[in-house]
Amino acid sequence: MGVYHAGSRAVQDRVGVREQADHVGRSVGRGIREIAAAFLELQPLLVVGAAAEGRVWASPLTGSPGFVRATGPHRVSVAGGPLPSDPLATAYATPGTPVGTIALDPRTRRRMRLNGRLAPTARGFAIEADQVFSNCPKYLQKRQSYEFVPDRRPGEPRRTAQLTDDQAGFVTAADTFFLATVHEGGADASHRGGNPGFVRVDSPGELSWRDYPGNSMFLTLGNLAADPRAGLLFLDWTTGTALQLTGEAHTEYGEDRRVRFTVREVIETPSALPLRWSAPEYSPANPDPAG
Fold it and tell me: Where residue 286 falls among pLDDT bands split at 50, 70, 90?
C-alpha cells in the first residue's frame, strides 16, 4: 500500500505541497523500530479509529503501561478491549478490520501513528501494520504527569442525536481532540490541538475548526475528500469522561482552511477512563482561536 491515495494527492495538489508531502512520506514505513516499540510500552492510552455498522468512530483504550506493545516487526498487540457499550466493540472482534491508531504522550509531547488491520486475540487484539510514523509536537499540549484512579468506574453512556448545552460547553473548552477517518481499504486516527475555543460549536448539530498548518501529508483531509465519514473523540483529562461523535465532515478552502463536521450521533460516557492528568501547558505553536 502506498503512503498516499488519490484523496490526499488531490488536497496536496490543491494546496501546492506535493513535493513536501513526498519528502515527509519517506519517513512512513511498515516496520516498528526499537524506539517506537519502547515508546508504545510507556503509554496508558491508545486511540483507535475505525468504521462499524456504517459509521466511523474514534475510541479510547487504556491500561497499565505495556498493555500496548510491539510483538513483531510489523505487529502490535493490545491487551484488553473497549467497554461493552463502545460503538467499535463489534469492529474489534472482526478480523481484517482496517484501523488507525494514535499513541500520544502529553508528558513528552510526542505522538505515534500506526495504521493497519485488526486481528482478534485471546487477550485482546493485534494490528498488522501497514503504516507507522511519528508526528511533530506542534499543537500538542504538555501535561506533566498522570495517575490511575483505581476506584473510578464508567457511568451509563448517554446517547443523543445532537450536542446538549453541557456537551457544547465541553467541546468549546477542549484543547485536544482525536479525529478518525477512513478511505477505501484503510483507516487513520489523528490529533487536533489548540487553545480552548479552537473548536467552534456552530449549532447543536454542527462543529467546525480551522485546519492549522501541519506536515503537508494531508492524510486526514485526503480521507475526507474520498469518504466524508468521520468520528471525533473529546476527553476530559481530569474526570475521564469521553465524548464520542460520529458524522460527516468536509473541508472549506478559503483564506484559512476550515473543516465543518455534521453530527449524526453522540455518546457521552462519564468516568470512561481511569486516568487523571495534570493541568495543561498550552503549545507555543497554538494560534489565537479568535484570530
Answer: very high
